[in-house]
Amino acid sequence: RLSIKKITTGSRELDNILGGGVETKTITEFFGEYGTGKTQICHQLSVNVQLPPEKGGLSGKAVYVDTEGTFRWERIEAMARAVGLEPDKAMENIFYQRAYNSDHQISIVEELFSFVPKNNVRLVVLDSVTSHFRAEYPGREHLAERQQKLNAHLHQLMRLAEAYNLAVVVTNQVMARPDVFYGDPTVAVGGHVLAHTPGVRVQLRKSKGNKRIARIVDAPHLPEGEAVFVITEEGIRD
Ligand code: GTP
Ligand code: MG
């Protein structure tokens, strides 16, 4: 049995509330409103997974599934340089995939079961995991179908994480007004999407300027409390 490993987020405080970093063999969901840093964290983890273990990485590669078209190679270059990785190498070690709709997203993940073990992939990012599902199954009349598809997709991701001892990181945008979600069974009150799947849920909020606040939701095994981190030119930091 392979043991659980952790990937540093770049912020010691955020790592601490996560119990050392983002874990393998599980799904970690970052949820929060627009601009809270979900995409920046995904970029940072895609770089940091490449670091050697003594620097908080897994000497591995990342798959980045982008559903919203917000991935930026320039951001990877800057973050790589800041942690002492060769930018061209760091970019080569990220397998970028744009997912155009939910069926495409699902089939990308299915193909990962053969791709991942051949390519030393230790991190799979889905930014965001929910946007296509929300767009394609709108309104109350599609809720049951959307929930069923999304749950099957999340279970598939959980199997991938467990089978290959890798970290799966997903993002989920929630609106500032939580009342929008009342009555929606695919999101728990508070807004995360992993209500019916095991995993770690991290709520992000904005603070002053480039400061952000993270809080772990519903995780009895992790320390309580909040972490403050910043988003800088170099990336995610304390
Ligand atoms: P949505 O996808 O809209 O839900 O937002 P998000 O949570 O993914 O936010 P994202 O990670 O895209 O951005 C969060 C913040 O990061 C932005 O508001 C910017 O302040 C900051 N940011 C993004 N790019 C850069 C950059 O290149 N340099 C610096 N210093 N900050 C950046
Ligand atoms: Mg984003």
Q: Could you list some keywords that capture this structure?
A:
binds guanosine-5'-triphosphate, 32% helix, DNA repair and recombination protein RadA, binds magnesium ion, globular, ATP-dependent DNA damage sensor activity, 11 strands, 7 helices, single chain, two-stranded antiparallel sheet, 238 residues, alpha/beta, nine-stranded mixed sheet, DNA recombination
How does this structure look, described?
The chain is an alpha/beta fold and 238 residues long. It contains seven helices and eleven strands. It has helices at residues 12-17, 38-48, 73-82, 87-92, 102-118, 131-136, 143-163; strands spanning 6-7, 22-23, 26-32, 61-66, 94-98, 121-127, 167-173, 200-206, 211-217, 226-232, 235-237. The protein has a nine-stranded mixed sheet, with helices on both faces. Strands 1-2 form a two-stranded antiparallel ribbon. The radius of gyration is 17 Å and the shape is globular. It starts with 5 loop residues before the first strand and ends with a strand. The structure holds guanosine-5'-triphosphate and magnesium ion. Keywords: ATP-binding, DNA damage, DNA recombination, DNA-binding, Nucleotide-binding. One of its GO terms (biological process) is DNA recombination. Belongs to the eukaryotic RecA-like protein family. This is DNA repair and recombination protein RadA.
Overall shape: it is globular
- Compute the separation of the termini in Å: 34 Å
User: Describe the biggest sheet?
Assistant: 9 strands, mixed
Global Rg: 17 Å
Helix percentage: 25-40%
User: What structural class is derived from the secondary structure elements?
Assistant: alpha/beta
The pLDDT mean sits at 91
Work out the helix count: 7
- Low-confidence stretches at least 5 residues in length (pLDDT < 50)? none
DSSP strand tally: 11
Beta-strand content estimate = 25-35%
Topology as H/E string? EHEEHEHHEHEHHEEEEE
